[in-house]
Amino acid sequence: MNIDLSGVLYTQLKEYEKKYNDALAKNDLENVKKFALLCANTENQMAEKVPDQSKSHLEKAKKWNEIVRTAGSAPRKRVVETSGKGGGTDDDLSTFGDTLIQVSTVTWKDIGGLSEVKSLIMETVVIAGLSRPDSIKPDKGILLFGPPGTGKTLLAAAAAGSLKATFYNVKISSIISKYVGESSKLVTSLYESARNHAPSIVFIDELDSITMSRDDDQSEASRKVLASLLTELDGFQDKKSDKLILTLSATNTPGSLDDAVLSRFPKRIYIPLPDRKACMEIIRIQTKGLDISAVDLDQIGELCVNQRYSGRDLQNVCRDAMKSMTRRVNKDIFDNIENMAALSFEELQKKTLKSGPLAMDDFTRAIGRVKSPLMPEDLKKQEDWNKQFGAS
Ligand SMILES: Nc1ncnc2c1ncn2[C@@H]1O[C@H](COP(=O)(O)OP(=O)(O)OP(=O)(O)O)[C@@H](O)[C@H]1O
Ligand SMILES: [Mg+2]
Fold first, then answer.
1. Are 296 and 359 in contact (CB under 8 A)?
2. CA 320 from centroid of its chain's CA atoms
3. Which domain holds residue 316?
């Protein structure tokens, strides 16, 4: 979430995270522990190098250490292939590489605005997690819809991060297009794995890719994928189980959802663009650890709403503003960039990039540069659809 000015460590961290995810996907416990530990150590180093953000890095280091600790005590079983139809293994899923199973360190606090949506998902998670009378059934799956960059993926990641659940991040289009013949088996494998790694949050992105109107391979695969998906969703609701597997799905073109898909997702929540207050909250989150006391957030929030910014646009604005600040407070480096670029990597590592207070100008200039891709009519379409089909 936070922008880290210590690029080298950041790159290293990303590499360790990737290796950690690879190991997790393969159930390679030894490497899961090894790379989680390396992530923890790197976060600790980042806490030292970037004092402004030390609290957040120390928190992340703590989470990684927790993963190291629990990875040993609760080894994750390899899924054993069951005979006949419906059997699936993690090996089937490994074709997706490291993007499928993830560890989420996102929490509810990382999300600005959307308080009603957050409460609603929290409620669903709590009801699904609690022991309850048979008559009370948790939601089968929740559909999140809205313009791009408004926090749909972030919400699913926060649900997983807060629960310390395994996070399956799946683009349905990749299941359908790459593995046409295997599609339904992959869905079964996905849920088989989710059951084995419970508690799990299964996030199914680009739900609109399930289209059945055409008469081709793609539609045939879509039909099978949808049938398997519905079987899994129904199965979880009906089976009495102490395992939590919650499916969240997302689209930014709800109007193109197939009726058959829509009818099976009765809970449909609109994730709108942030209002002024939410913009202010998102800016605070995105600049956590930095001094923004000189910035009139009310005024910036207003400008951002007028620009039709999403959370992603706000993230870009903050990044741009931080870049301006970095250039300003590190004049010695940036006025001398050619000489700096001639230094060896080791020599560069010995120097530190300073951080300073953000100025109002940093933001107003950034707002001039970041353009929202949305037109008013795009938003109207989403809002109209929400009025007609949205249901929470
Ligand atoms: N409500 C929010 N609070 C804080 N950050 C946000 C929020 N919404 C978006 N962001 C920032 O924007 C980035 C993109 O958000 P996210 O990926 O969740 O959008 P999305 O709705 O899933 O978009 P898409 O429809 O394109 O998949 C996040 O990683 C985060 O940095
Ligand atoms: Mg997304």
1. no
2. 22
3. 276-373
Q: How far apart are CA 173 and CA 205, in angstroms?
A: 8
Shortest-distance Cα residue to atom 24 of ligand 1 = 148
Residue 164 has pLDDT above 90, yes or no: no
Residue 168 corresponds to which tokens in the numbers above? Answer: 């399956």
Confidence of residue 31 (pLDDT cuts 50, 70, 90): confident
pLDDT of residue 15 exceeding 60: yes
Q: What is the 3-state secondary structure (H, E, C) of 46-109?
A: HHHHCHHHHHHHHHHHHHHHHHHHHHHHCCCCCCCCCCCCCCCCHHHHHHHHHHCEECCCCCHH
Pocket of ligand 1 (CB under 6 A): 111-114, 148-154, 252, 282, 285, 311-312, 315
For residues 26 and 170, membership in a common domain is answered with no
Q: Ligand 2 center to residue 153 CA distance, Å? A: 4
267 shares its domain with 137 = yes
Residues 239 and 203 in one domain: yes
Q: Probe ligand 1: pick from 275, 283, 312, max atoms within 8 Å of CB?
A: 312
Q: What is the pTM of this model?
A: 0.75
In a domain, 383, yes or no: no
Ligand 2 center to residue 249 CA distance, Å?
Answer: 10
